[in-house]
Write a structure and sequence with these properties.
It contains 11 helices and 16 strands. By secondary structure, it is α/β, with parallel strands linked by helices. The longest helix is centred in the middle third of the chain and has 16 residues.
Length: 316
C-alpha cells in the first residue's frame, strides 16, 4: 500500500488493484438458486481455490466468470474494469476435459492454438515450462493422462495470460503425475501469474492455494487462507488407532467424556479420536492396556475442515 497525493493536495491511501473481483453474483434456474449472492476478491500473483461439494454452485460460479454461463445478476470486475470481449484474449483456461486432434503432435497442437491469439509465448518456452520436451513430436493419442494435462496447461498459457483458470487439473492422475503438475503450477505462480483453481483434492488446495473459499448451497461458508481457516475452525489433534484393538469399554469411556469425540473411518478399519487433551487420552489408552504400536497422531487438515463445514452426506 502506498500514499498518493491527489489534486486537492490531501493524502489518501490507494490499495493494490485486485486482479479479479466478483460482486453479488447470482444465478437462478427455474427452481434452483445455484449461486446466491457470492462476492470475493482475488489478488494478483496468488493462487485462489474455489472448493465445494457436488452441486454446491462452484462450477456455475466459474462458468459465469469464464463467460460460459450468463449471470442472473451481479458484477465481474477484471483489472478494475467490467469484463468485456477483450477479457478472453487476456486469460487462459484449462478445462477439466478437452478433446484434441489425434493426428496432430503435441508441438503441432500448441502451434495451432497459438495462431488464435495476437500475443504469444515462444513455443519452445511453453514446451520447457510444461515439461513436454520428450513428447513434443508424439501424436496426441499416444500420450498419457498426465502428459495430456500438461499439454492442456500449455494450451492455456499460449497467449501469455495474467489470469489462469485451472478446472480440476489433476483429476484421474496418479500421485506422481499430480505432484509433477503441482510443481509446474508453483513455477507459473512465481512468474507473477494469478491462478484460479477448482479441485476435489483437499491436499492439492492446501499446498497450492494462498486463499480459498468453500461454497455450499450457493453461498460462501468459509473464506481465508487454508492455514488460518484450519486454525480457526479446528482445534486439537486427531489420534488414529486400529479399530480391532479398541474395546467396547474404551469406546464407552470416550463417549462419556466431553474432551473426546471419536468416529470410525469409511474403511471401518480405524477409529479417529478428536481431542485437545492428547496426553490425557494417551494415558487413558495405556491404563487400559491398549497397544500403541500403530497409533498415529496428526493435526487437522483442509479435508477435515471441508467435511466439518459441508457434512459427510454425498451430494448428487
Amino acid at each position: 500500500m502506498k500514499i498518493r497525493r491527489n489534486s486537492s493536495k490531501k493524502y489518501r491511501l490507494s490499495q493494490k488493484t485486485a486482479k479479479l473481483e466478483v460482486r453479488n453474483l447470482v444465478k437462478h434456474y427455474k427452481e434452483v438458486k445455484a449461486v446466491n449472492n457470492i462476492s470475493f476478491v482475488i489478488q494478483p500473483g496468488t493462487c485462489f481455490g474455489l472448493l465445494g461439494p457436488n452441486g454446491a454452485g462452484k462450477t456455475t460460479t466459474i462458468e459465469m466468470i469464464e463467460g460460459i454461463t450468463p449471470p442472473t445478476s451481479g458484477e465481474i470486475i477484471y483489472n478494475d474494469q467490467p469484463i468485456n470481449r477483450h477479457f478472453w484474449e487476456k486469460v487462459g483456461i484449462q478445462f477439466q476435459s478437452t478433446e484434441l486432434f489425434s493426428f496432430l503432435s503435441v508441438r503441432e497442437t500448441i502451434e495451432t492454438f497459438m495462431r488464435l491469439y495476437k500475443k504469444n509465448v515462444h513455443l519452445n518456452e511453453l514446451i520447457r515450462i510444461c515439461h513436454l520436451e520428450d513428447i513434443q513430436h508424439q501424436n496426441n493419442h499416444k500420450i498419457s493422462g498426465g502428459q495430456k494435462q500438461r499439454l492442456l496447461l500449455a494450451i492455456a498459457l499460449v497467449n501469455n495470460p495474467d489470469l489462469i483458470f485451472l478446472d480440476e487439473p489433476t483429476t484421474g492422475l496418479d500421485p506422481q503425475s499430480r505432484r509433477h503438475l503441482w510443481d509446474i503450477v508453483e513455477a507459473i505462480k512465481k512468474r507473477g501469474k494469478t491462478i484460479v483453481l477448482t479441485t476435489h483434492y483437499m491436499d492439492e488446495a492446501q499446498i497450492l492455494c494462498d486463499e480459498i473459499i468453500i461454497v455450499d448451497k450457493g453461498k460462501i461458508i468459509a473464506k481465508g487462507s487454508p492455514e488460518n481457516l484450519i486454525t480457526r475452525q479446528c482445534t486439537g489433534q486427531i489420534i488414529r488407532l486400529p479399530q480391532a484393538i479398541v474395546s467396547e469399554n474404551i469406546r464407552h469411556i470416550l463417549s462419556s467424556d466431553k474432551r473426546y469425540q471419536w468416529q470410525t473411518d469409511p474403511s471401518n478399519k480405524f477409529i479417529h479420536i478428536h481431542t485437545s487433551a492428547i496426553n490425557e487420552c494417551i494415558e487413558l489408552l495405556l491404563t487400559n492396556n491398549i497397544d500403541l504400536t500403530n497409533l498415529l497422531i496428526r493435526s487437522h487438515n483442509l479435508e477435515d475442515l471441508f467435511i466439518q463445514l459441508t457434512g459427510k452426506a454425498l451430494r448428487q
